[in-house]
Write a structure and sequence with these properties.
Length: 225
């Protein structure tokens, strides 16, 4: 649709959006240049002249290219042509050149590459007490030096590498970020998981006195006597 190609972020764009059924005459120029002419709403006797995006290019070719935009011109062919020549065509040519340059230098979109394959992985666990760590046996040998360098501690009585909860939240975030960056640079993938909270078990019922027995001193019943 012509309306989708209006290369303008101002009044011309608004006009084609607000009046989609209005006729849009085109002016053809050299090298694929096209201008559209739109009656300016609410301003009798004035027209909007705006360039159209060139066809045959991909969306990323227009990225970072400023819209050349259109202008309002009077109902006077001579004055209108002079204004368009002076104010629209130079910007239009500059934008067209930028799009063609982008198409030459980057024909295909810059898709982000997937993560590299890893031979080893480390799963860091967030424990309920705020500690971040991993059981010793699950830590690849090549990762241990990195964890030590990022202030993880080995606790023999827990058989785990841990980053103590005594560090501030911001400090721990920076240390974990550094560890992940260094580990992935060595080809060791890093996962994060939360530890399952320990089960509290079924609630216990308070003991009840056997029939015929008196409450023991110090219980709430005896205190009310």
């Amino acid at each position: 649709m012509i309306a989708d190609r209006v290369w303008d972020c101002g009044p011309a764009n608004s006009a084609v959006q607000d009046f989609p059924d209005a006729p849009i005459p085109l002016l053809e120029g050299p090298d694929g240049a096209q201008l559209c002419v739109i009656e300016q709403p609410r301003y009798p006797g004035q027209y909007l002249v705006a360039p159209l995006e060139p066809e045959g290019f991909k969306p990323h070719h227009f990225r970072m290219v400023d819209e050349p935009n259109g202008i309002a011109v009077p109902n006077d062919p001579v004055r209108a042509a002079a204004a368009v020549t002076r104010r629209v065509l130079p910007r239009y040519q500059q934008a067209m050149d930028a799009v063609r340059h982008n198409a030459r230098t980057q024909p295909e979109p810059p898709h982000r590459s997937p993560a590299p394959e890893v031979a080893q992985t480390l799963t860091l666990i967030w424990y309920p007490d705020g500690v971040v760590g991993a059981p010793y046996k699950s830590v690849p040998e090549d990762a241990r030096t990195v964890l030590y360098g990022c202030y993880f501690q080995y606790r023999p009585h827990e058989s785990a590498f841990v980053l103590p909860a005594s560090y501030s939240t911001s400090d721990r975030a920076l240390l974990i970020q550094s560890a992940v960056r260094l580990l992935t640079a060595q080809g060791i993938g890093v996962n994060f998981r939360h530890a399952a909270p320990a089960s509290a078990g079924p609630p216990t019922r308070p003991p009840t006195a056997a029939p015929g027995t008196q409450p023991t001193a110090g219980t709430p019943s005896s205190a009310r006597r």
